[in-house]
Design a protein that fits this description.
The complex is a heterodimer of chains A (about 140) and B (about 140). With about 140 residues, chain A is of the alpha+beta class. Chain A is about 30% helix and about 30% strand. Chain B starts with a strand and ends in a 9-residue tail after the last strand. Classes of the chains: A alpha+beta (about 140), B alpha+beta (about 140).
């Protein structure tokens, strides 16, 4: 099995607020991430696909195709957007690194036909990231 | 469709060490550890990567609150290690050689009891060229 990873970057804003909790609880749990007008990050997304190289092309998958999937599914949906208000898949969820990574997994997994989605790693900053794996395949 | 989510967090500490063991002769120490056996030690800017997993709490969107993880790592690792000598200031390294392999194991041991999530892995980068990772004793850390 060979793993192939493609990286993209997007910029987006978000805030953490759970309407079921009091303003004080929101403040206590989320700190400055609860500031009402939100804030932003440069996110870096690494998408790893696993598979065997095709004997004719030598490729696990056509990177052009992966690039197009990432452009369509992720960049157009999330880049320069306010994640809480503009990304339907995140409605009703706190847009933490964990939840965004999971939504990205769910968007990409059915689109990847050659090879198999192995890992989604989303960096919110160089010191904080979330990894998603298929259950039972944690790296 | 089941997805496992892990959170990764990086921390930094600057610490000195010397690779040397009383169980070997001076010549053997120098042969095995080279300049890492120089008598007064040397230091690195270590980068520690901590990986935790668990259910994402629907009310917070988090595996664990970062403030809790940060304060735990601060207390268990950064405060006792940063700007210190591993050999002199950390009891276990009076007995075992403070290689980065052993440092990973010691950090894993210290962080294993983090109450809010399961510790999956500890990765320590000693320099930009060398990094080491520990996921617990085999059999202990099942997927």
């Amino acid at each position: 099995m060979v793993l192939i990873t493609r990286k993209i970057e997007f910029s987006a804003s978000h805030l953490y607020h759970n309407p079921a909790l009091s303003p004080e609880e929101n403040r206590r749990i989320f700190g400055k991430c609860n500031n009402p007008h939100g804030h932003g990050h440069n996110y870096a997304l690494e998408v790893t696909v696993a598979g065997e190289p095709d004997p004719v092309t030598g490729m696990v998958l056509d990177l052009k195709e992966l690039k197009e999937i990432l452009e369509r599914e992720i960049m157009q949906r999330m880049d320069h957007r306010f994640l809480n208000y503009e990304v339907a898949e995140l409605k009703g969820q706190i847009p933490t690194c964990e939840n965004i990574a999971r939504v990205i997994w769910q968007l990409l997994d059915p689109r990847i036909k050659q090879g198999r989605l192995y890992r989604v790693r989303l960096y919110e900053s160089s010191d904080l990231f979330a990894d998603c794996y298929r259950n039972g395949a944690a790296g | 469709m089941g997805v496992t989510v892990e959170l990764g967090r990086r921390y930094r500490f600057a610490t000195s060490h010397r690779l040397h063991t009383g169980q070997l002769s001076e010549e053997e120490n120098v042969r095995i550890f080279g300049k890492c056996a120089n008598p007064y030690g040397h230091g690195h800017n270590y980068v520690l990567e901590v990986g935790i997993s668990g259910d994402v709490d629907p009310s917070t969107g988090m595996i664990a609150n970062l403030a809790d993880l940060d304060s735990f790592v601060e207390r268990e690792v950064l405060e006792p290690f940063d700007h210190r000598s591993l050999n002199e200031d950390v009891a276990v390294f009076r007995v075992v050689v403070p290689t980065t392999e052993n440092l990973c194991i010691e950090i894993f041991r210290r962080l294993q009891s983090f109450p809010q999530a399961k510790l999956r892995r500890v990765r320590v980068q000693e320099t930009s060229n060398n990094s080491f990772e520990y996921t617990g004793k085999s059999g202990e850390e099942q997927v």
